[in-house]
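Record pair follows.
FIRST:
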Amino acid sequence: MTTIVEDEEEESTTVVAICHRYPNATEVKLRGTPNVEGLVIVAMTSLRHLETLILDKGRLSEAFFLALTDCPALTTLRISDASVGSSTLEVTVCHERLHDLQLVKYRVLRITVRCPQLQTLSLKRSSMAHVLLNCPQLRVLDLSSCHKLPDTAIRSSAMSCPLLTSLNMSSCLCVTDETIREISFTCPNLCILDASNCPNISFESVTLPMLMDLRLESCEAITSASVSAISQSQMLKILQSLELYNCGMLTSVSLDLPHLQNISLVYLRRFVDLNLRSPVLKQIKVSRCSALHRISITSNALQKLVLQKQESLTTLLLQCQNLQEMDLSDSPKYGQNQQLHSGVSVAGLVPCYECD
């Protein structure tokens, strides 16, 4: 693979010379070039084996996207921090072989993508208000921080990709539970979901039977009832990883999930009670939950337990035969040399069954 890297001093004649010298180049990167569109069109028309094109900053008009058809071998296109060089403020990407498309922090009104082989699409931090996708093979979709994208557009985008396995809609402030429900019906194989900073979702009455990784950060509507719905229904029975961060209304977590392996609970200011049961639970992080006073954990797989900055912790019940390490740093009731009532030192690398 040959990579061409240009800066803002490069001229079109230099690019032409380099393309002639390396006609079999498969990857081109252009960063900080004033005439990025002219240079990249020269490269695309000269390099018949071009597979990867990476552009950073600049203005790109409709002519650039039309020229993509001159790159039949192109599989990866990544554009960041760019704007549309036309009055229509619309972008249409059509390519038969493209597998990976990233339009990150792209300043545009409307984006249309028609790529039958596309597997991964990221529109992260882009300013569009309208999206139209025709990507039947899409597996990974990132719409995070698309603040102008309405709930209906997010819903229709995801639902147009029935093979979707990973969806990131974090910081899309208008997303609702109804959207997640509709997506779950159309995308039954969805296994990774990031709905962080979505203040309108409670995650109740949502069915996601294949979900394995769920991230909920700064979700104001997530409550103990939300967690109870997760535990009691069949919707997340194969959930393996759960992140709850800065969910201010959450007061307790009680989960009995047979496949849960990792859980992270951080900055939950009203959180007072934790009850976890999973035979394969391997990693637990509980940090900066100032009101938390009771923890009960049952797991034969747990080896490391992190309980940092627990100011109110008074009860710690553990049934963890293979526990090897416990971090209670900055927890005033359990100093590093504190002996638990079972005779197990907090810093000791020995099994710990129960301590209160």
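SECOND:
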Amino acid sequence: MAITALEWRGRSSIADTIAAIRAVVDGGAPLLEVLRTGAEANVHRFPGETDFFITLALRASAVYASGDLVEASRARVEEGLKKHAELYEALMAMFGRRPRPPYTTHHLASVLAALAEGFGIQDLGGRHQHFNRPDLGEGVGSEWTLFGAATQAVVEHFTEPSP
């Protein structure tokens, strides 16, 4: 049953991410606004996503389980990272960025996934931290999540302008 739960896909987090940022990307918003919008949508969808927490708990406990459960857990993570890496490749191309050596897009996807999962757990029973950043430039909203600021820091460290 646990393996079936790990393999079940009610909806895709990548589809949710794309839906959250589509309007700002299509509207020509700056990269910071795309990061802010995507992070904001991400932290607000977690409280009601029991499937996210169930699969996270199964993945965390898989190390103590059978080889089949470990493999199903690993496959789910790799599938998600691959899809997110593809999205990040497209966004980097759109915004004139590339992975900063020695990092890869897979590294970027791995770090952002770990941050999202960590904040999802940390925020259980409480409100995600928000703060005002009014001086980020034209077209960038001022209401930021802590996850958004962390995402910005990771993107700035793991990527660089394309030549």
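COMMENT: The chain has one domain: 30-161.
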